[in-house]
Amino acid sequence: MVKGRIIKGVGGLYFVDIGDKVFECKARGVFRKRKFIPTVGDYVEVSVIDEDKKIGFIENIFERKNFLPRPRVANIDCCIITFAGARPNINFDLLDRFIILAEEKNFEIVICINKYDITKQDTIDYINRIYLPIYNVIFTDTVNNIGIDELKIEVINKVSVVAGPSGVGKSSIINKIVTSGVRKTGELSRKIERGKHTTREVELLFAGNGTYIVDSPGFTAISLEHIKPENIQFYFKEFQMFIGKCRFNDCVHINEPDCAVKENIEINISKERYERYKFLYDELRRRR
Ligand SMILES: Nc1nc2c(ncn2[C@@H]2O[C@H](COP(=O)(O)OP(=O)(O)OP(=O)(O)O)[C@@H](O)[C@H]2O)c(=O)[nH]1
Ligand SMILES: [Mg+2]
Ligand SMILES: [Zn+2]
């Protein structure tokens, strides 16, 4: 038996990277019987059927540390939340929703603001004021290769998923990072992708030893309905050092008196992020 990692799955066939080569494997029937679907990113044990033809069977799947249903990937380390500084303009409500989802999954987070070449100074200042104190923010420009080296350093030895709205340059960035497999970019590829009804194939793209990148389709909306309104506070990173310091143990930091979170607005917590917290809390409460 050899250990490896599923990097791609196509119609019941799994490509397993075992270090120096890639084996084509089928999964043992037991997985089907248990309705357990091997997933890109899974660490597996493979029994070799043919060493030369590189064919084997997946015998065992190791426990996952996390799982993302769309794109379907297991064992993600890092999420590169990607937006464009312009064209399309940043929707900050959507950005915060991406952040909340990534925080909920416990992914490491990098905020990537692409199209730096056409980004207005006002937008740069806003992001630097609101997000730079709490997250790792990297400005990139795939036309002039700005910020790409910085991003490469962040992803070394990790599996990183690049997520964000459509047209922000996710595939363009990935093409600068990966060493194999060119991603489709631009308008044409988007049309093709939209027109297809089949599930888009997910793949761990190789970007150097132990380093993999996963592309994803553009998300225009993010649902947070599975999160209880009173839990949304735990996914606002800058609130965490004040939670537990309010007068009431179950404080949700909206109307309660002596609230440590509210007392820190415009000191350690930006008004803009707090307002978006309130908006999301209200929205999730109304839906219950
Ligand atoms: N000005 C500018 N344009 C860019 C930059 N990066 C990408 N683009 C352009 O933005 C458009 C969209 O790029 P893609 O890489 O396809 O975007 P995507 O996020 O993968 O889009 P989807 O696959 O639809 O989700 C293309 O026309 C790119 O040429 C950049 O840094 N600056
Ligand atoms: Mg793309
Ligand atoms: Zn409070």
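^ zinc ion complex. Helices lie at 29-33, 92-104, 121-130, 148-155, 170-177, 186-195, 260-263, 271-286. The chain has a mean pLDDT of 92.
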